[in-house]
Amino acid sequence: MFNGSFCALITPFRDGNLDEKAYGDLVEWQIEQGTDGVVPCGTTGESPTLSHDEHKRVTETCISIAKGRVPVVAGIIVDSTRQAIERAEAVSDLGPAALQITPVHYLFRPDDAHMLEHFRTVGKGRIHQGIHRRHDAGAIRSAQQQIRQQFHITGALLDADNLGHLLQDAD
Question: What pTM, to 2 d.p., does this model score?
Answer without folding.
Answer: 0.73
